[in-house]
Amino acid sequence: MKKHFKIAVLPGDGIGPEIIDAALKVLDVISKKYGITFEFEKALVGGAAIDAVGDPLPEETLKLCKESDAVLFGAVGGEKWDNLPTDKRPEKGLLRIRKELNLFANIRPAKAYDALLDASPLKQEIIKGVNLVVLRELTGDVYFGEPRGIEERNNERVGYNTMIYYEHEIKRIARLAFEIARGRRNKVTSVDKANVLEVSALWREVVNEVHNDYADVELEHMYVDNCAMQLIRRPRDFDVIVTGNIFGDIISDEAGALTGSLGMLPSASIGERYAFYEPIHGSAPDIAGKGIANPIATILSAAMMLELTCKLPEAARDIENAVEKVLEEGYRTADIWSVGTKRVNTQEMTEAIIKHL
Q1: CATH number of the domain where residue 246 is located
Q2: Mind telling me the catalytic residues?
Q3: Annotated binding site for NAD(+)
Q4: What is the Cα–Cα distance from 174 to 98, expressed in whole angstroms?
Q5: Model pLDDT, residue 198
Q6: What is the number of structural domains in the chain?
């Protein structure tokens, strides 16, 4: 089994450096416990890279990512860069990483912790026991389809994008969905709009073909509008949701909101060779530098890295269990604090989790 891993560390902007440092402290503990070593190398991305070299994704950063076993990412963006041209903004660096590394699958778990049921906007009897994964195709669809643009036709402006999927793109995300489901509760919900869109009709057809190799996994198809409703009505019924880029963008945020705080939600973006781990929340520039950000989503993203890249699922479970115990003990950062719980800062939350490791 591989014992040494080179990790590209991209703290980014806002609270990114604080939450990344918290995750690195946890990984240091794990490395000692499991006898593995990490070589962490930091690089610029997003607004920090724009300020330093005028590019949200410098070539040196991309080169480091391609030479590493995995990328651990903080957050990018902030009001400081909001007025830049679209192709020069911090978020463009993130999109380019996904494309350059061919990170075709975004894996976003959404788990309702018993200790945080009060934080959910839904009733406890609906949210209790929710444990699902949204698998979003990440390199196709309208975000990358051509032709695209804004032009003048018949004396008025028209904007257009192309929704497009190739068969091989659908096959590889469908296979991954069935593989993930086999390690969970053996159910896949494929989400599309096949009653209206030809691209969705192909999506459904190809998913059905791939399912022939995974007959042991239950497959259901659901229109995206119905899925959005059922996620609110009966979220416990979902296990693995697989869908395209634009539908996945919306559905994954909805699934994340069920749990009550974006500060709790990790994600992984993986390709055939590279893997990229990040919390789903933003850079929160309003609290940057105050030491009060919730590090849990980033720490859980590091746990996903241990499982998927390092092939150490037991280490990932260690971190997940430590997080659960800390929440049960009442520790809360500001975003998840409620009356009667212990309000702590980023460092105190990190130390509490490490204590249980």
Answers
A1: 3.40.718.10
A2: 143, 193, 225, 249, 253
A3: 78-91, 282-294
A4: 19
A5: 98
A6: 2
